[in-house]
Amino acid sequence: MAGPTTTAERGERRQESSGPPLVRRLRNRRFRRIVIPVLAVVLLGSGSGWLLYGSPWLRVRHVSVSGTAVLTPGQVLAAAGVPVGAPMVSVDTDGIEVRLRRELPRIDAVDVVRSWPHGIGLKVVERTPVLLIEKGGNFIEVDKGGVRFATVSRAPEGVPALELSLSRSGSATASLRRFGTDRLVREAVEVARALPAAVRRDTRTLKVRSYDDISLELGGGQVVEWGSSENGAAKARTLTALMKAASGARHFDVSVPTAPASSAS
């Protein structure tokens, strides 16, 4: 016959009977809290990956072109080489931009954008000629940055011709040796950009003899001595005022804008 059970013995029995199952339950709950979210993330990631890369839904079905003026949308599409049918997420937009600028130098900038769920948009900005260089019966177009980007058989209207009339004089030879032809072309571009709008529209030829000897030949036979490309804004203002004050003059000199001159011949 068992003796009386003490309070200490009863406490030990309760601890023995309740301890291990309680620990197991706590461990199971902790395991579920960790494993179930991990499994959910894995399943969600697998589903998203399949949706983006493996499903037939988010794939390139059409490509649009905007912003063309001289180029045709067909030319842009052919040069872009967008992989129709490929997953939208896998399209290399940077690579397409680089390829377009390389294949079509007339393109100054292009933005390739995804239009979910099935479209790719090609937003093009074309270069605009500010000067023309005649060569072999054709015309080389030069943009505002001095880039020679295209050769055309017909001169665009309203774009002045650039004439490099580099004489063999000492100053012209030194100018060519120091700056080079490309630099002189860029100087001519700066002059063309600085011209007042009315004068720019009427300019037929922009003649470069040296770095600081650039002149304009206008449609009415008038000549403007511009000098270098420096102080372009001041020269433009002076020329506008001078042409109003001496409307019958044929020759204008704004090479030194603070001391302009005009004459009838």
From TrEMBL:
<feature type="transmembrane region" description="Helical">
    <location>
        <begin position="34"/>
        <end position="53"/>
    </location>
</feature>
<dbReference type="GO" id="GO:0032153">
    <property type="term" value="C:cell division site"/>
</dbReference>
<keyword id="KW-0131">Cell cycle</keyword>
<protein>
    <recommendedName>
        <fullName>Cell division protein FtsQ</fullName>
    </recommendedName>
</protein>
<keyword id="KW-0132">Cell division</keyword>
<dbReference type="Pfam" id="PF08478">
    <property type="entry name" value="POTRA_1"/>
</dbReference>
<comment type="function">
    <text>Essential cell division protein.</text>
</comment>
<dbReference type="InterPro" id="IPR050487">
    <property type="entry name" value="FtsQ_DivIB"/>
</dbReference>
<keyword id="KW-0472">Membrane</keyword>
<dbReference type="InterPro" id="IPR026579">
    <property type="entry name" value="FtsQ"/>
</dbReference>
<keyword id="KW-1133">Transmembrane helix</keyword>
<dbReference type="GO" id="GO:0043093">
    <property type="term" value="P:FtsZ-dependent cytokinesis"/>
</dbReference>
<feature type="region of interest" description="Disordered">
    <location>
        <begin position="1"/>
        <end position="21"/>
    </location>
</feature>
<keyword id="KW-0812">Transmembrane</keyword>
<dbReference type="GO" id="GO:0005886">
    <property type="term" value="C:plasma membrane"/>
</dbReference>
<dbReference type="InterPro" id="IPR034746">
    <property type="entry name" value="POTRA"/>
</dbReference>
<comment type="similarity">
    <text>Belongs to the FtsQ/DivIB family. FtsQ subfamily.</text>
</comment>
<keyword id="KW-1003">Cell membrane</keyword>
<dbReference type="GO" id="GO:0090529">
    <property type="term" value="P:cell septum assembly"/>
</dbReference>
<dbReference type="InterPro" id="IPR013685">
    <property type="entry name" value="POTRA_FtsQ_type"/>
</dbReference>
<feature type="domain" description="POTRA">
    <location>
        <begin position="58"/>
        <end position="127"/>
    </location>
</feature>
